[in-house]
Design a protein that fits this description.
By secondary structure, this protein is an all-alpha fold. The protein has one helix at 2-107. It has one domain (1-79). The chain starts with a helix and ends with a helix.
């Protein structure tokens, strides 16, 4: 009887330990799965960050180029305005001279 009780107790303990072992194995597998998932998320995040950094650098370079072109266009516009004003002034002077010549011809 003692042997049966001892074998029963040892059998119950073995079942308990094997059951616990399976629980811990499944918990370990689940933790490993979550760890791999977290690593994949981190890798994807890093890839996205690099991609967005490159896009940002490209956008900043485009903005710089457009700003340079805008500055150049503004300067050219200013020069054209100056030339137009000089031509207007010269045209006014020449028109006055033409009027003077017409009046002198009219006097003759």
């Amino acid at each position: 009887m003692e042997n049966i009780a001892l074998i029963s107790i040892l059998g119950i303990l073995a079942l308990y330990f094997f059951g616990s072992l399976n629980v811990y194995k499944s918990m370990y597998a689940k933790l490993q799965e979550e760890k791999e998932l977290a690593e994949n998320v981190n890798q994807n995040r890093d890839k996205d960050l690099r991609k967005y950094e490159n896009q940002l650098q490209d956008a900043l370079q485009t903005i710089k180029d457009l700003d340079d072109r805008l500055t150049k266009s503004r300067e050219e516009l200013q020069l054209e305005k100056q030339k137009r004003n000089e031509f207007r002034h010269r045209n006014e002077l020449l028109q006055k001279r033409v009027d003077e010549l017409y009046s002198s011809v009219g006097m003759i």
